[in-house]
Protein 1
Amino acid sequence: TIFRMFTLIFYHEPQITHQVIGIFGAVTMVLGAIGAVAFSDIKKILTYNVIVGAGFIIAGLASFTADGITGSVFYFVHDIMVKALIFLLGG
């Protein structure tokens, strides 16, 4: 839904809206990585890794280019499959 919202509704002022979501994506990546480094439990590390992945997806959306959005969608599909398998191994 965030892809539809930012590509169909908030496309009028991309220099404002997409810059803000890009900053949120960068902050999400950094804080997720810091959270992952802070723990030694594999389950918590994997959980924070999901947060980092969400930041990557949001950063691709913030680029507001066809390649960025396509890359975010492909990364999202790949991330779903790989993280599910990693959680099965880590659990």
Note: The longest helix spans residues 14-38.
Protein 2
Amino acid sequence: MNWAQMYDCHGDVDRVPELLARVELEDDAEAWDELGYRLVLEHDLVFPASFAALPRLVRLASRSARARGLAGAIVRCAAGGHGCDDLLAGCADAIAAFRELLDRHLRSRPDDYFASFLDLLAVEEQYHWSAAMGDFSDDFYEVACPHCAVEVTIAIGGYGRYSAIRDWNLGDVDRRGLRPASLEGLSGIGRWMHETAVRDGEAVLADGIAHLFGDAECPRCASVFNIADEYAASNRPVM
């Protein structure tokens, strides 16, 4: 790795390899903190040093939660306009190893299950859902009805599971219950997400995914549409 060309978020080319060497020797909290703000800038910006560091972070990730979290943060930024596509391609083996590590980690039902689940979605190049999906404790998604174009609020969480028209004075009005997808009705990434959550005993997450990939009724025109399809179509990031 030619670190002389691998500038970090602050334009430096020598600091990241020094910090990596420190955390490889011992779990240095101060070094980890500095690595975090040098490799992933606010607003989810990454730079050449971020991808240059990724293989070494993945090698540390099996024994370091800090390494696992920082590697996940970098992968989640891979969809952005970072201008490092060649470096990202060179991380293919490291990302494949990270995929296996995250899957094993999820099977252990860790305390950071949801964050690791989102990281695995990013590894699977499902950047949209990695960024947009909540843990279904109190989730709201705004979608446009594909038939009448009215803005529909979708609630999946502690407030209920419904579609509604949001009135800023009256709240969510004209609520209609959602229609969760059956196991047979799930396919693609929705099925994989649901099966993974069920496998790992994450009942709330599995139920939320079934509702997110199910159908909603528009309170204005009574047409029925698939929530995930409409939300993804409106909010998928530009690659």
Note: The chain has a mean pLDDT of 95.
